[in-house]
Design goal:
By secondary structure, the protein is an alpha+beta fold. It has six helices and five strands, in the order αβααβαβββαα. A five-stranded mixed β-sheet has the order 1-2-5-4-3. β4 and β5 form a beta hairpin. α5 packs antiparallel against α6.
């Protein structure tokens, strides 16, 4: 009797899986649409900068949707229920965009223009450029809410946007790879060296900004 019951459950399992997965797939689709909305806004600002100032503030724009495994791991780590409703309520970085800029000033200029748009709501800002993390990490993180216009409804969706300079992104990429290395005997010394490298990179960003400002000042005085 138990075997017959198991066989019956197996026969309907695909339908159960599809039914249960549908809300998750819908949320992933909505997150992707929100990414496209914000990425379009950023590309428009980049094009306008290119026309007005004869240069592009962005080096690159990368977007991603968190993988199902990453979503589950974060929900578990934070102690949240493993439901679609919990994902929407508690995770603000399912949809993410990373904007790599040439200069620190460009980061703040573009971020300000983005959040001033009347259909964008700034939910949270974390400025790790002015206040770096303990390990030296620097970046500007914004949690934005943007409306997504679907066939039968308008739905507000959250998108995380990270702004970094080329140097900040280089440092963060290497630090991310190194921190997952195991059995490191001199971990404390390496941590201190990473902090030192972050400070060097920050100083380089400031110097490059100053050089650009000097060049632009001379262009203004010698049209």
């Amino acid at each position: 009797m138990e075997l017959d019951y198991d066989a019956k459950m197996l026969s309907i399992q695909p339908e159960i899986i599809i039914r249960e997965a549908k809300p998750f797939m819908e949320l992933m689709m909505e997150c992707k649409c929100a990414l496209m909305e914000v990425e379009t806004k950023l590309n428009v600002l980049n094009a306008e900068f290119a026309l007005k100032y004869n240069r592009n503030p962005f080096e690159s724009i990368k977007s991603r949707i968190k993988s199902p495994m990453s979503i589950v791991e974060k929900l578990k780590r934070k102690g949240y229920p493993l439901t679609v409703e919990s994902m929407e309520r508690n995770l603000f970085d399912i949809a993410g965009i990373r904007v790599i800029c040439s200069f620190v000033d460009d980061i703040y200029a573009i971020a300000a223009l983005l959040v001033q748009q009347d259909d964008i709501t700034l939910l949270e800002a974390k400025d790790y450029i002015k206040s770096p993390k303990e390990n030296g990490y620097r970046s500007l993180h914004l949690i934005l809410e943007v409306p997504v216009f679907l066939a039968e409804k308008k739905k507000p969706m959250k998108v995380e946007v990270q702004f970094r300079t080329i140097a900040m992104d280089f440092w963060a990429s290497l630090e991310h790879k190194l921190k997952y290395k195991k059995d490191i005997s001199d971990a404390k010394e390496i941590f201190e060296e990473l902090q030192e490298c972050a400070d060097i990179i920050s100083n380089m960003d400031l110097r490059m900004q100053e050089i650009r400002n000097r060049i632009e000042e001379r262009e203004d005085t010698n049209p």
